[in-house]
Design goal:
Helix content: 25-40%
Distance between the termini: 74 Å
Number of strands: 18
Shape: elongated
Structural class: alpha/beta
Radius of gyration: 23 Å
Strand order of the largest sheet: 1-2-13-9-10-11
Low-confidence stretches: 190-198
């Protein structure tokens, strides 16, 4: 069987949404063969731990030069027998840190959607032209534990608008399958840059980034039959009472103070809602209040010109990577962002940035919070009159 394997690199900067994250390379491969053999490749990771690579792609073109950042999962074809062929366009991405919905959205979902948008040139097309007759297949993360690699129903709900077929791991497939048309994103495949060397993109077309974020929100609204709301009224406080980090000890006091002063206040635990229920609530949200963390990604679906108030523990400012990413994403969605670092005296500043980030809010300064919310509501009333 004589099959030519080729590839081309797509222009990943066309939608350079990343902020202080590893740049993404995107390749479109024609005719590659999957080999899930028992003889797995391995390497030593940055922590000095020997890791197993769970999937290998094999090529059948001796003259094909494999991109360096794909070299750990690609080899040349050894003329093995083909089991069967998958002709449908397939998008492949190696997931990691999916146990946290914030990391799932920023580090997994958005790169997958970026692949799809660039490949289909969706930036300049109406959302009705999105091709959902595609596969989305995932690579296992060899350095993460089993829990981090489990897909929740909400993960799949996030992917449903972009593929009408089952989301699968490549390890679920038998060996020697020929893929005729594959797009693969290399974010996370090769981590040659140390975290301190993560860079910002230069010469970014910010207009494309804004369109990218806006169209994603519109695609979810359309798929889940959510009507845009030009007059949202709810104040939503997201609870982290069941989270490992950044619980608010006096959360009940904040809720009580908000309900005593304002109307349409709702106290929410999103782990109890599916994505449709979450979107239905968010489309009527004028002010979304949340501690820093994974819950911030939910604010990506509140209406334009609404507000997101994000609490930070004392000692964890607004310049590290995720506060920067969240702020930039919300700016692109035309959502007003207020980042507040707790000032309560009981919140002790620790020596380590990560310790400050992950500690619980012993107490939040309720007076500050009510004042911020009051200013937002007063400005809206003044604007509406």
């Amino acid at each position: 069987m004589n099959i030519l394997s080729t590839y081309k690199q797509l222009n990943s900067n066309y939608i350079a949404y990343e902020i202080r994250r590893n740049p993404i390379n995107i390749y479109n491969f024609k005719n590659i063969v999957l080999n899930n053999s028992l003889s797995l490749s391995s390497r030593i990771n940055n922590s000095g731990v020997w890791e197993i690579i769970k999937e290998n792609f094999l090529y059948n073109n001796d003259n094909l030069e494999i991109p360096k950042d794909c070299s750990m999962i690609f080899e040349k074809y050894q003329k093995q027998q083909i089991s069967y062929t998958i002709s449908r366009k397939t998008y492949i991405y190696k997931i990691f840190l999916v146990g946290n919905i914030g990391h799932f959205v920023v580090d997994n979902l958005y790169p997958i959607l970026k692949m799809i948008f660039i490949d289909q040139n969706m930036i300049d097309k109406p959302i009705s032209e999105l091709n959902r007759d595609v596969n989305i297949f995932l690579l296992n993360t060899y350095s993460d534990n089993i829990t981090e690699q489990c897909l929740w129903k909400k993960h799949l709900d996030y992917l449903l608008p972009f593929s009408q077929h089952k989301i699968q791991f490549l390890s679920e497939f038998p060996t020697n399958i020929l893929f005729q048309d594959v797009v693969i994103c290399t974010l996370g495949l090769s981590r040659k840059k140390h975290v301190s060397e993560w860079i910002k993109h230069t010469n970014v077309n910010e207009e494309h980034n804004v369109k990218f974020m806006m169209k994603i929100r519109d695609i979810y609204y359309k798929f889940y039959n959510i009507n845009k709301n030009s007059s949202p009224k709810k104040i939503v406080l997201l609870s982290r009472k069941n989270a490992r980090h950044r619980k608010i000890v006096n959360e009940g006091r904040i809720i009580e103070a908000l309900e005593n002063k304002f109307q349409h206040v709702e106290y929410i635990q999103f782990e109890k809602l599916n994505l449709l229920q979450e979107l239905q609530l968010l489309t009527d949200t004028y002010l979304f209040i949340t501690p820093h963390g994974a819950g911030v990604v939910s604010s990506f679906f509140i209406p334009e010109n609404s507000h997101c108030l994000i609490f930070h523990p004392k000692g964890f400012g607004f310049t590290p990577d995720f506060p920067t990413i969240y702020k930039r994403f919300l700016d692109r969605l035309k959502i007003n962002t207020i980042q507040y670092e707790n000032t309560d005296k009981k919140d002790k500043k620790l020596d380590n940035l990560h310790a400050n980030r992950d500690k619980h809010f012993v107490y939040m300064n309720v007076k500050d919070i009510i004042q911020i919310v009051d200013e937002i509501i007063v400005k809206r009333i003044y604007k509406d009159t």
